[in-house]
Design goal:
By secondary structure, the protein is mainly α. It is built from seven helices and three strands, in the order ααβααααββα. Helix 1 packs antiparallel against helix 2 and helix 2 runs antiparallel to helix 7.
Amino acid sequence: MDWKFLQGLLSGVNKYSTAFGRIWLSVVFVFRVLVYVVAAERVWSDDQGHFDCNTRQPGCTNICYDYFFPISHIRLWALQLIFVTCPSFMVVLHVAYREERERKYRAKHGEDTRLYDNPGQKHGGLWWTYLMSLFIKTTFEIMFLYLLHYIYNSFKLPRKVQCDINPCPNLVDCYISRPTEKTIFTYFMVGASLMCVVLNICEIFYLIASRVVNLKHRGSVHTSARHVRTNMDCDGCKS
């Protein structure tokens, strides 16, 4: 997988993100993508080849491996990274849509006119798009964590599993290569995923709180302006 391409796309998201969003992006690339590319892929590269069972029955080892590892950790994490980063492109696409509308508006009404003060400013529909992307990312993170735990019944890999599936002649013992190292990496990736969930939740609360404060400030400004106009009308009536 070309992770540099994904990094190039997400770098455009960074300039539209809040402080929490920038921290989230750093965690994704430093603690997840880099660890995945540099170390985790190599740890799981010999996964099936070093899955050893104490039998020479043809097909038994492959069947047992497929039963206990229906999807590799490394491939599940790759899917998780793709799914949790793709919602961020919703913001980029929305900003691109605004910029295109701005370009057409200026072409029609003149270069001095402006449809948006700042196409990348999070207000109106873009605020809702940004908030929706955070909810989708958080949902995917939790869903993949649950899926990983559901498939393997734990985040810890056992040293030995027992299998009696056909064509195995009887109950055979199968041994996983480097279970301790894989368990450490699994806990690390799970911890990084949970950190991203916390950052997403913090950003959701930050966005909502900022929106509430802005609405209150705007309401107070409108109320003050209304009082000023009322007082001016009253003074005109007295005069």
